[in-house]
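Table S2 (text version). Query chain:
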Amino acid sequence: MSNANLKRRILEAISLFEREELSFVSLIDTVEKAGAAIEAIPHEMGVELRSILSRLPIEQGYEEEDCVSNSAHELAKLKTWLSRVPDSSL
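Corresponding structure-token output:
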């Protein structure tokens, strides 16, 4: 699958989550799987994705406990990260 399709899959999951049509668990699962399949990114971008992914379950826990969650900030960081991913692995 091309990077463009993987990016689109992640962005669709974010959109569904923001409309409360997708659970946090499903969002995290989609990002983990599609993110792992993205090709031709520098090591630093891989580290950045892992950092974002490590924050999502924490934000999920905050939301489940009715605490202040910063999931919107983490999703914005993910969208910014995705904008820097090349559409193709060539």
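Notes on Table S2: The chain has a mean pLDDT of 91. The radius of gyration is 13 Å.
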